[in-house]
Hints:
This protein is α/β, with parallel strands linked by helices. The chain has one domain (about 5-265): TIM Barrel (Alpha-Beta Barrel), CATH 3.20.20.70. Helix content is about 40%, strand content about 15%. It has twelve helices and ten strands. The strands form two sheets. An eight-stranded parallel β-barrel has the order 1-2-3-6-7-8-9-10, surrounded by five helices. A two-stranded antiparallel ribbon has the order 4-5. Strand 6 (about 110-115), helix 6 and strand 7 (about 140-150) form a beta-alpha-beta unit. The longest helix has 18 residues, at about 120-140.
Amino acid sequence: MSYTGKAVRLERILDRRTNRTVMVPMDHGIGMGPIKGLVNMADTVDKVAEGGANAVIGHIGLPLHGHRRYGRDIGLIMHISASTSLSPDPNSKVIVTPVEDALKMGADAVSVHINIGAETEKEMLQNLGMVASKCREWGMPLLAMMYPRGKKVDPENSGQDVALAARAAAELGVDMVKTSYTGDIDSFKDVADGCPVPVVVAGGPRMDTTEQILEMVRDSIDGGGAGVAIGRNVFQADDPTKMVRALSMVVHDRLDVSEVMKELAL
């Protein structure tokens, strides 16, 4: 097992100074189609790279279509599970790309989406375990997107349920977890403390203001989070470059939201 290879790849995703990260998921096309911000993928990657994002997340089509077309360097996390919004059960994710293909495309990590509480949870957990095993074999970092979603889950950001989802991923051997913010610092601290690998927060649906986004991010960092993986609130922003720059100032520099808003004139 190539732990050296894994360490080298992780350095492309987690900032050496802070051991935190700003990721921009761009895997929405397979589930939602060519939504705003993802029509020209290379252009969007260029904008978020300019802003200082550590990595983008996308399916194999992203590097195949030239995600570094403009020459800017940025980490690549290849998402290898999927479903579409037209599926009878969109919460049921299947593996669509082997880890080996991600390696061949030069990815720095792979990611898998698991919905804890969904009707097909057992199949998704089995897939996660198999992918984790393959990642250990190749020295490939693994990010698990873990969300409580199903008939027993209400609300989806319950601190107890999010903590369970994050811990389940760590128990199966992942290197990082992306999950929902629980709504307050104390409950998210329980999530981060209960998970032995870095936990980053998702952005979720579009928020009303930039200040709301940055406050959520700052609270997650104060609660022990390792950064963010925010998609629509970045690539659908009026200025994605400035938005990523603001996130980086909160995540890596730990600046107060008011300082960031003032410095960037947001």
